[in-house]
């Protein structure tokens, strides 16, 4: 007699997992695999990586999901490889070849071309992207052979270092603002060089203050007994490490957790609030008070 499959027992899990995403998995696939490893009832991510891309993906469980959108604004750093002389439909190695051109550039020309992209630049988002047009992702139109006109957007390239120039390949490390498409950057560099280019490798190494060096692979997590995995998670406030911190005493803590603005010395803008444990995110108001924005749920509140 066949036994019924054992249903997964989801648990309340709070924290942030820094995952080293493998290539070939979508960000959502990676999220669901990690979620099952922790049996987490609630999970989300802080911004996607293309399936081809590898590297840092910050995943949120439980209460940490309340603060996941704060990392969307953070700068990101990527290590990328450009293949010169070939353009593709997607701007990366997963697309079909559009054109092949001779490559006659040297290292000096490549360095000069890349230097021209520093600072604020205009980028036209690629058709193979998750941006929406009339409620539908652009890549869905692209797969049907439909081209949608896209407005350019301003993004900022904070730094762009050329680390290797080969006969047909260039390695770069780029730190950029939110909304930057490294695939598009690769294509634009190729056009300046006159030979075209596409992306063959992309690895995210940082998101704001979060670093790939602190990330774990799915295999590393799976190798640890499930009962011992919780310590692998960072506290939800890891997502807000770039913000100043404010400490509350027990009375102001109680008022704050009941949603009331409290008077306390605080810098202007958003702040992390503690009392002494992490309580949530607040905004400084003009009257010298801080007003709760997102709060951690506590049983006694």
TrEMBL record:
Primary role: Responsible for synthesis of pseudouridine from uracil-55 in the psi GC loop of transfer RNAs.
Keyword Aminoacyl-tRNA synthetase in annotation: no
Similarity remark: Belongs to the pseudouridine synthase TruB family. Type 1 subfamily.
Enzyme Commission no: 5.4.99.25
Active site residues of this protein: 50 (nucleophile)
tRNA pseudouridine synthase II TruB subfamily 1 C-terminal domain ranges (all copies): 244-296
Protein name in the entry: tRNA pseudouridine synthase B
Reaction(s) this enzyme catalyzes, per UniProt: uridine(55) in tRNA = pseudouridine(55) in tRNA
Keyword annotations: Isomerase, tRNA processing
Gene (name only): truB
Source superkingdom: Bacteria
Domain tRNA pseudouridylate synthase B C-terminal: 183-224
GO molecular function, one term: tRNA pseudouridine(55) synthase activity
Domain annotation Pseudouridine synthase II N-terminal: ranges: 35-182
Pfam families linked to this entry: TruB-C_2, TruB_C_2, TruB_N
CDD domains reported for this sequence: PseudoU_synth_EcTruB (cd02573), PUA_TruB_bacterial (cd21152)
